[in-house]
């Protein structure tokens, strides 16, 4: 029992235990921790009154709860031969009769220790809150499993304490003890213990000084556990990495990601893409919409990026800045850099090749800009890199854990962007070919393909099923009202039906995003890699990164995807599509380092050349050009007017094509009826008055009028009940004539 200023409680507490334990051999060790009151005097009286049963230990100065517990344990071990040791307090809040129950539980459970937890804690509310926070912190940091980590009622077998070194101060001693005795092959059980209100004195554990000391000590305990390998082995490996160069690359990538994000945020261009705004809106409408719920994820854009943003998007700051989605992009950027290093290291057999590949990608200004935005490319890149690396490891080792990891990254890619479906097909081909080359019969090939495909294709199956259930057609993502390629690809697009122009367009987009120098080095790297390995099963995986090239050329030719470059179309549109080839370009350009004897000097020159050769940040030029165009200025103008004049009430407004206005006007999403408002959109288009619509926003652009304009413009219900308040080249904003009270 530690004792500090317990003059009024000590005698009652000790004699309670003496009476209860009278029929069995026992010793009671009390440590007076430099108490300035009469605690020491009372303790000496008890030791004199009950010689051999009460052992008195005195600290000359107050050393804290942790030191008192350590002294008590040491005294019990050194001066007694008791097999079981109970750790408790001297403040009278625990009773001795619970010890009899604990002894029985220990025998019945054949446990090494019985740890108490207070089922009904007799403490003030604030102390209960502090204790809950402390318990959760200890569970997270030290992986203690106790539901009441600082409960001072612990019955332990002597062997648990014999060689145990404790260093925790103040309240940190208890979680340290639990963490260390639970680290070995021991059986520890929990059991409820009664807890009673303190009758005399006051508690010191809630003082700021004690709390700070406990937190500081807990951090030190965590450090020691990690150092000794008792907890958080992954953290220990991170602190002492097997590949220090990879650790440095990862750290630099993280720093670079944050610096770039801060720069682009300060420039005010993080949400320049209309699609970036749309991604944030989709996530926000899951939690804030007239018909909020998972159905707001829609059926056109794949759901994973929006699902990942939902936990943060409900916080206004993360929503208005786009950080709810940008954080995921930034993390994905770091993951991509790590995997590119590991892929190239595995290909070339030299870590400096990995460094070159990581640098070529990480220093690309287009990659840095996209990772600062809510766009979905960065997440896709991470999934692709992860899938290819683990596929490469499976091809090399044949371990099923690696193909399982590859399939998991693949399914995440298929739920991020449709390019992930191409990845899924490419990886399937590699798996099938590799299994074929390792011929062990058809059953072996079939088993490998099924093992990979059950997970990898589950995302595609789930998405088609989702579209079928929600929209009534499994291919709604392709044929739906807002998914048809004809919405973006015009009949006169030069790429449609012309394979040569399609190839030229995509090559120029790649050069705009990656640079001709990098592409040239990557092409040479592909040739050398093929010359060295041919189509060998163990080295086939990196080729999967090249599968996006024919895919994009075909989609341009078939009119499935629009992509404009200045040299052919006179403008930029979706030029970021070329960035998916940056992964393969970085890997194969980095592979060249393996062919240079003096790798480090070449590395610096090669990286500098490839980075400097990137012709600007085309992925940023494109959205900025739109914002500065007449259409962009009109969007901004109408959004600004709405932001200044909106005074409450429901708004009827199509989302498609008006995303920028919705976001920048800062209209409350819960008041906007749009095409995703279940069973509200169509009735509002027919009769906005009955639907209690106060504001109506419509786009009248010739040839691309929105649904609101087509349904209501010129109708009696609009002319008789709504007043036109704002009009520009092709935007009209109405408000109900009979206005409702402002809320």
From TrEMBL:
InterPro entries reported in the protein's UniProt record: Glyco_trans_2-like (IPR001173), Glycosyltransferase_2 (IPR050256), Nucleotide-diphossugar_trans (IPR029044)
Domain Glycosyltransferase 2-like: 1-163
Keywords from the UniProt entry: Cell membrane, Glycosyltransferase, Lipopolysaccharide biosynthesis, Membrane, Transferase, Transmembrane, Transmembrane helix
Pfam families xrefs: Glycos_transf_2 (PF00535)
Cited CDD domains: DPM_DPG-synthase_like
Molecular function in Gene Ontology: undecaprenyl-phosphate 4-deoxy-4-formamido-L-arabinose transferase activity
GO cellular component labels: plasma membrane
Domain of life: Bacteria
GO biological process: lipopolysaccharide biosynthetic process
UniProt xrefs under Gene3D superfamilies: Spore Coat Polysaccharide Biosynthesis Protein SpsA, Chain A (3.90.550.10)
Family per similarity comment: Belongs to the glycosyltransferase 2 family.
Protein name: Glycosyltransferase
Protein species of origin: Herbidospora solisilvae
Organism phylogeny: Bacteria, Bacillati, Actinomycetota, Actinomycetes, Streptosporangiales
